[in-house]
């Protein structure tokens, strides 16, 4: 059993792989990585134990992880809320599988997602009635794309929005009772600048 897996709490995973990567000249960030392990590979590794893995916004020509479901946000590049909505609309390859009660939401540009997700799982047992558990870095900044959420609560929050295109994650999550989980900033680090991409290489 990997540290990222909690057998007592069945979960699905939604991996957000979209985005324009404008500060990186529009490259596919999920394909970046050293020692033959891409950022997408690292994100998938953090989902071990998930009943279903949905990858949202993977670029054309990119390899979809084995066993994962690939979907697109509507409209394309509509932002993380639109991507999350697309990921939660997918119930599986045949659209008949039941959703797990908990959903891991994870950006695909994190450098050390497995260690970060493990800290979230450790916090779950301490507040089992919450709507979710969200990572908070050393500066006290919430990291909404590094969180575990009650699937029903997340869907209800999405349904309450007028539109998802361009909607803010802050507005989406505001109604939810979320436990803030301290996660060291080094585990929240993503690849969003040329300097960060160079360090990863």
Blueprint (SSEs and pairs):
Blueprint (H helix, E strand, L loop, with lengths): L10 E6 L16 E2 L2 E2 H7 L7 E4 L12 E3 L8 H10 L12 E6 L5 H12 L7 E5 L5 E9 H9 L9 H5 L4 E5 L2 H4 L5 H7 L1
Parallel strand pairs: 1-4, 1-6, 4-5, 7-9
Antiparallel strand pairs: 2-3, 6-8, 7-8
Written overview of the protein:
Mean pLDDT is 83; it is low at 1-7, 21-25 and 91-96. The two termini are 29 Å apart. It is built from seven helices and nine strands; from the N terminus they run E-E-E-H-E-E-H-E-H-E-E-H-H-E-H-H. Strand 2 and strand 3 form a beta hairpin. The protein has 201 residues and is α/β, with parallel strands linked by helices.
- Whole-number average pLDDT? 83
- Global geometry: globular
Please trace the helix and strand order, writing H or E for each element: EEEHEEHEHEEHHEHH
Measured by DSSP, the beta-strand proportion falls in: 15-25%
Count of alpha/pi helices:
7
Largest sheet: 7 strands, mixed
The spatial strand order of the largest sheet comes to 5-4-1-6-8-7-9
Oligomer: single chain
Question: Unreliable runs, pLDDT <50, ≥5 residues?
Answer: 1-7, 21-25, 91-96
Secondary structure category? alpha/beta
The end-to-end span amounts to: 29 Å
What radius of gyration results from the CA coordinates? Answer: 16 Å
Give a quick precis of the structure.
Helix content is 27%, strand content 21%.
Supply the key terms.
201 residues; two-stranded antiparallel ribbon; 7 helices; globular; disordered N terminus
